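Worked example 4.2. Below are the chains of a multi-component assembly; read each line carefully before continuing.
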Amino acid sequence: MDLENQKRVKELSEKYGPENIVVVLGAAEGEAAGLAAETVTNGDPTFAGPLTGVQLGLKVYHVCEPEIKQEVSPDLYDEQVGMMEMVLDVDDIISEMTSIREQYCKY
Amino acid sequence: MSLLKDKKVIIIGDRDGIPGPAIEECVKDAGAEVVFSSTECFV
Amino acid sequence: MNSVIKGTSYILAHAPDMVIHNGSTQTTERIVNPNSEYLVKLPSHIRSYEDALNYRPNQTYIGNMTPAELGEIPQPWYDKPMENGPRYGKFGEIMPEDEFYMMMQVCDVFDLVHLEKGFVADVKPRFTANPVISEDIAARIHDGIDISEIEHFVNEEHAEGLYYQDKLVGYVKRAHDVDVNLSAHVMHENLVSKASSVLALLYVVKNSGIDKSEVEYVIDCCEEACGDVNQRGGGNFAKAAAEIAGLTSATGSDMRGFCAGPAHAMVAAASLVKAGTYKNVIVTAGGCTAKLGMNGKDHVNKDMPVLEDMLGGFSVLISANDGVNPEVDTDIIGRHTVGTGSSPQAVIGGLVAAPLARAGMKIPDIDRYAAEMQNPDITKPAGAGDVPASNYKMIAALAVKQGDMEKAKLATFAKEHGMVGWAPTQGHIPSGVPYVGFLREQILNGEVNTAMIIGKGSLFLGRMTNLFDGISFVVRKNAGAAQAQEGGVSKAEIKGLIAEALRDFAASMME
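Applying the procedure described above to all three chains together yields the following C-alpha cells:
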C-alpha cells in the first residue's frame, strides 16, 4: 500500500479509535486485496511503510463483498459497482479477504 | 447490526478495480462518514 | 477532410542499472529500508540485454511480432523467450543501456552529461553505426573524461551516477546549486525522457519517409515536467527534442494528462491538421525512469526477473489526408468529463458507448479496441490484474447491458475485438497508442476497417483533483481508399500505393 495512505490509516485510527474505523478496498485482484487488508490489520507485509509492525486489526472489506453490498441501495450499487462485479473475480476476492479477517481482525 | 452506519470509513480504491469516488458513493449511501478516500495505481 | 496516420515508431531502451539507481520503488526503499532483503536480492533478478531482446512483448513493441502472434504464446511469457531476438524491428529498436547513455549525452545542451573516456571509446563506434544516428547527431558526442572527475561529481557535487553493468561510467550533474527543479535527479529524469523521445522521432522520420523540413509541429505527451523554480512545468520537451532530431521547421508544445496524454495529443494533432493549421504534426513521448522496477518487489518475491527494465518511446506522424492512409475520425470522440462520474461503467460509458451512440453505432460495430495495452506479465504478479483483459470485459459487459450484444458473446469479445497487452508499464506509453502502428498496417492491408483508441489517466495522483480522466477516438480506413476499392475506379492505383507503403516497411526492416 502506498506510504502516504498507510500514514493516513495510522493517523485516523489513532484519532477516531480503531474500533470505530472500517476500511473499504477496491482492489482489482484477490491477492492485492489480501495484501492491502493485511496491511491495515497485521502491518505492512512489504516492510516499507508506516504500518510496518503495526497491528491495527481494523475491520476491512472489499466493496464487492456481500457485507458491503447489502448495506447499499441496489440501484446505486449497480450504478457504481455493478459492471465491475462481472469483470473482477469476486469469489477469489471474498476468500482472500475472509482469510485475512479471520487471522488478524480484532473488531 | 449495521457494518457501515455511523462508522468512520477509510477508502483505498484501485484505478483498475473500483476507484475511491465510486466506493465513496456506496458507503455514504449506507450512512457512513468517509474520513479518507484515495485511489491507488499500479501501472 | 480528416487527417491521416502517415507513420509511426516505437522504441525501447534497456535500462537495468537505472532500475536499481533511479526507479522510484528502489530509491524510496533505500531511504525507508536501506538494509532490506529486497535491495539485496534485486541485482540477481536484473535481466541482461539479450534477455530483453528475447522477451517477446519487447519484440512485439518494436513490430517483429504481432499482438495476435504474442497472444498465441501461453502466459507467462518471461519464461518462454525467443532465440536470437533482433535489436531492430520495423517500428524501431531496442537500444542497449550503454548506447542510450550516449543518446542522453548528445541530447544534453547544458554540459550536464559526461561519460568516461574508455566508455566513450568503446560505445561510440556502435552508437554511430545505428542507421538513425546521422552525422549531425554523431558530431554532438563529447570526448570522455577521467573516472576521477566522475567520482568527484557523484560524491561531492550531488550528481546522479550513470552505471553500466554495475560500474560507474558517467554522470548527470545538477543544473543549479539551489533550485530543486534543476537538481541532478530531475535533470536525469528529463534527459532520459528527451533522449527516448528523440530516438522515436528519428525513427518516425525514417519509417514515414517524410522530409524533416516538412514537420511543422511536435506535441510531446510524456508525464515529466521541465522548468525552473519560477516555472516548474514550463516545458517544452517537444521543441527540445525536435531540435536534436533536426526538425528545423517545427515548433511544438507539451500536452499533459497522465496516461491519457497520448490520446489527448493524438486528438489535438488530428484536429490541427484537419483544420489546416499545420500539414504535418508529430505526437511524441519518451520514457520514464521513475517507473523502472515499479512492481519490482512483487517480481522478486515471485522469483521472476524484474520485467520493468525498459524505457519506452513512440512517435506518430499525423498528416493531411492523402486518400490512402487511415483517417483519425474526429467526429467520434469519447470524453470523460467533469460530470461523468468515476464508476468504471460511467468511465467506459463516456469513453466508448456515448461517442458511438452519437454516431449511430453500436459497440460491436468497431473492429478493434485498444485501451490500456499493459503487458500482463508485469501487472498480474503485482496484483493489478490483466489490464487490457479487464478493459475488454468492461466494454463487453457494457455492450450486453445496453443491448448491443448477446450475453453469449461476452467470452469471445476480447478475442474478436481486442488483443493481449505487450507494452511496458511506462504510464503514458501503454495507453492505447502502442496499437496505432499495427493498426495502420492492418487497415492498409484490409484486415481491419475501424478501431477505437482509448486513453485513460489517473489525474488523482497529482492531488489536485480526485477525478479520473479519459479520451477516445476512432481510426478508420481512408474514405478515399474505401470508395476507390468499392467502385473499382482506381483500385490498381490504391493497390500500388499500399504495396509501396509495405515495401517501405520491408526496406526499413532490412536496414
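Take a moment to check your reading of the output against the notes. The two ends of chain A are 21 Å apart (CA to CA). The first strand of chain A starts at residue 21 and ends at 25.
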